[in-house]
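Table 4 source record.
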Amino acid sequence: MASRPHDDGGRGYRGGVTDTPFALFDLESVAPHVEEALRQAPLPHETRIVADSGDRVAWLRARAQGITATDAAKLASAASVRAAAWEKVHGHTRRGFGGSRFTDHGREREPVIAAWAHREHGITPSTLLFHADLDRRHLATPDGLRVTAGGTVELCEIKTTSKPWRGIPRGYLRQVWWQQYVLGAERTLVVWEQHADFVPVAPDPQCRWVDRDDDQIAILVGYANQLLEAIRPTARSSRAAAADQAGGRGYEDEFLPVEPEPAYDRSFYRPGPLA
């Protein structure tokens, strides 16, 4: 006698698996949402991704093609532009990009601090390098990024320090403003953690919001373009030829090392109460 089919209770299942393709999904209700999501255009900054620091070689190569927030942090005067140009052409003389024990500590603590910023402020960690809308040579890699329900871009910048801050050091502010310019962001949460002998002094870091400052951004963009012009190969060749014809000093004298201003000077920004 033929065996009876397994009684599945009339639900069309055999051994807990459906006989009807896609019956596990309510396609009629899901499809419109999927279609809508596929139709949504990417946000402006999402179309300007250059590299991911997860691929460090590609990220470093991409950074070397333009002006980054690290470069912008140094651009405070004409003399600082000349010093930055000399470093770009000849390389760092004091310390390579590999950093020191302090930068190593910062790299170790950054994921921990980023997790705190995500938990407390909803800012997602980011490792992406972006270029500005109007100039692909203007670059930035913010530590964190979120887009509000209204479409406003907000960033996060993470720092570690061995000294207490009276305010956010000016060099870091230039870095923040540059990132805001590149990403089109309206404000940045600067988060810093103080340490003593590389041990955090408090259970939680401190933070403050820094609003976008278009006047400061315009100054930075001007200095950045001066720097790009100074390191442009054809520009350097032209200066060298002119110097040879004139029998004067060599063009590289223009880029003699200038003692840079202290990395983060004594001009501090006080944007209000702690966040």
